[in-house]
């Protein structure tokens, strides 16, 4: 009788745990959807907002690069604060609310103030993805699903946001985009406030500084980060400068929204298929496939920088960014393990989005101003090719290590 009661209690605890995992999964899918809507509506248009106020692409590139640099310097502070005070959920909520409340001030036509506003926004935004991804990876494992099943909602939101922004701008001024950005970020913050307090990021047995030192001694991981940097700095040609380059090539405002929708929507099937592709090909070869898609994507736009081609080539966004990001995040999780997962994701984000964003914004802003879209896309093609070479070395080292382990 006692054994039966114990078995019933175990089943009830398992059922409760499974039900809680599903609830957290649904909340995270909603969070990524709202974050995607906010970012899709506003982020691609930050550059055009500043250009509309009389600044050049080179000027706006410097604003973005400077803000990203400061955010990289301060990002370890976020990790230390989370480690020390165990306030994962609070950090995520604040990181969503501060940029939302500051977005209106992008309309101020004072260069120094714009640098300050972008820097403050980026300092808080830079921690959103590492914290949300740490929740997502943990929740996906608990719910027996893949990280991609959560992350695809972010891509869906980004695509719908980009399309909605195009429609919105056909009726309202570009200087009014801060309103929908504020609305969806506040929804995200409310949803983030309902997430569990404890995740792997706050239950880690290794502090941020110790984990960082360990990872920086891993040569293969450093090669991986270098390859990610070379590939992802090219993405600023899309994230920061696509709207401007597309309109320089003759594309309309309405068609810009369609291109942004097409690009982000292709992430959805990519992220649905990512789990299967990763099982079949592994993390390293999937990243190589995605790097090849980046090369093809930029190469086509270098050879034919016309609105029709630039619109159609966005179907490669899912195969390039979608596959690469999912494979890279899961690669970091597999290499760092549970105890250093948050540190690994933070370091990856510092290089992937941070350092890549700085160099990409400065370089691609300068090239777009001086040589136009064609020169910018040629540079991106070369950088993605160099990144692919380094990731091939990482893949080969991984195969050799697996072969060595199988022989022991």
Automatic annotation (TrEMBL):
Its main location: membrane. The chain crosses the membrane at residues 21-42, 62-82, 89-106, 112-131, 152-170, 176-195, 221-246, 252-278, 287-304, 316-335, 347-368, 374-394. SUPFAM superfamilies: MFS general substrate transporter. Keywords: Cell inner membrane, Cell membrane, Membrane, Transmembrane, Transmembrane helix, Transport. It comes from the Bacteria. This is MFS transporter. PROSITE patterns: MFS.
């Amino acid at each position: 009788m006692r054994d039966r009661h114990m078995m019933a209690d175990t089943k009830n605890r398992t059922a409760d745990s499974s039900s809680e995992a599903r609830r957290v999964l649904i909340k995270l899918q909603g969070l990524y959807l709202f974050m995607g809507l906010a970012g899709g509506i506003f982020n691609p248009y930050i550059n055009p907002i500043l250009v509309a106020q009389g600044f050049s692409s080179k000027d706006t590139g410097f604003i973005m690069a400077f803000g990203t640099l400061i955010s990289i310097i301060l990002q370890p502070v976020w990790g230390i604060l989370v480690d020390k005070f165990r306030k994962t959920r609070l950090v995520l909520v604040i990181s969503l609310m501060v940029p939302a409340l500051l977005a209106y001030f992008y309309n101020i036509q004072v260069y120094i103030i714009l640098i300050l506003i972008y820097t403050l926004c980026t300092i808080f935004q830079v921690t959103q993805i590492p914290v949300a991804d740490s929740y997502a990876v943990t929740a996906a494992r608990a719910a027996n699903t893949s990280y991609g099943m959560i992350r695809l909602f972010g891509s869906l939101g980004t695509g719908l946001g980009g399309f909605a922004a195009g429609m919105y701008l056909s009726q309202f001024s570009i200087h009014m985009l801060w309103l929908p950005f504020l609305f969806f970020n506040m929804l995200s913050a409310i949803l983030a406030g309902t997430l569990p307090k404890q995740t792997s990021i706050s239950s880690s047995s290794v502090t941020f500084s110790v984990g960082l030192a360990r990872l920086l001694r891993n040569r293969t991981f450093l090669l991986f980060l270098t390859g990610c940097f070379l590939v992802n700095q090219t993405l600023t040609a899309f994230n920061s400068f696509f709207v401007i380059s597309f309109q320089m090539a003759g594309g309309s405002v309405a068609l810009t929204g369609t291109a942004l929708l097409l690009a982000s929507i292709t992430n959805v099937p990519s992220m649905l298929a990512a789990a299967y592709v990763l099982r079949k090909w592994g993390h390293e070869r999937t990243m190589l496939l995605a790097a090849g898609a980046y090369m093809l994507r930029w190469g086509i736009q270098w050879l034919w920088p016309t609105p029709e081609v630039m619109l159609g080539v966005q179907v490669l966004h899912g195969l390039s960014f979608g596959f690469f990001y999912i494979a890279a995040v899961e690669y970091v999780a597999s290499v760092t393990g549970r105890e250093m997962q948050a540190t690994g994701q933070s370091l990856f984000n510092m290089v992937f989005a941070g350092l890549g964003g700085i160099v990409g914004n400065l370089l691609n802003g300068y090239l777009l101003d001086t040589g136009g879209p064609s020169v910018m896309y040629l540079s991106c093609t070369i950088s993605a090719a160099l990144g692919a070479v380094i990731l091939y070395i990482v893949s080969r080292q991984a195969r050799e290590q697996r072969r060595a382990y199988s022989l022991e």
